[in-house]
Amino acid sequence: MYSQENQSYFEDQFYLGLSYNSIGGKVDEFKENKFSYSISYGFIKDIPLSNNGKYALGIGLGLSHNSLNNNLKYNNLNFEFIQNLGSTNINRYNYTELQIPFEIRWRNSSIDNYKFWRIYAGLRYSKVIQSKYIYEDVALSNEIDDFPIEKDQIGLTLNVGFNTWNISVYQSINPFFNESIDSDISGLKQFRLGFIFYVF
């Protein structure tokens, strides 16, 4: 969205993010299994800091749907590591987040140039609004709502790219699981790597 007044303009944007999702840390027995994903979408309001629009702030609101597949089994009381994943069909953590991204933005754009390089770095606060653990092997099937995830997630973001295509990186600051869980896995944190597409 553009304003001819003072040649300033706003890059208000809808966005769609597709990422590989993981948690990691210094836990020797922890292993990821199968592909884990994150799908996010929302809207970011652009707040220009300069008349030429090259520098700006961005604040937004969105949703994220996520899955994690690994060898960490949850039984409603505690966690244990699955030693033989070959007999396990599903061991997955699903969760949905309400996201509030905050970005410091730079781009080499102009009022009449719609294709440009961008570097957007910032923080993202996420509120987990739904979570479910799913387990299935040859003898047992189990689903548990509201596994002990840390419901208030904060992380660093970096989005870099040209025009519509942009690489997106996210690293959480606080642990993935909440303080009630076993200290052996309390240091596990989220990491995401993928693409984010900005659509006017």
Offer a quick outline of the entry.
With 200 residues, this protein is mainly β.
Mean pLDDT: 88
Number of helices: 0
- Quote the distance from N terminus to C terminus: 8 Å
Question: Regions with pLDDT < 50 over 5+ consecutive residues?
Answer: 1-6
Helix amount, in percent?
A: under 10%
Radius of gyration using CA atoms only? 20 Å
Q: In percent terms, what proportion of residues is strand?
A: over 45%
Main beta-sheet strand count, sense and barrel state: 8 strands, antiparallel, barrel
- Structural category: mainly beta
Largest beta sheet: what is the strand line-up? 1-2-3-6-7-9-10-11
What labels would you give this structure?
200 residues; mainly beta; elongated; two-stranded antiparallel sheet; 0% helix; disordered N terminus; eight-stranded antiparallel β-barrel
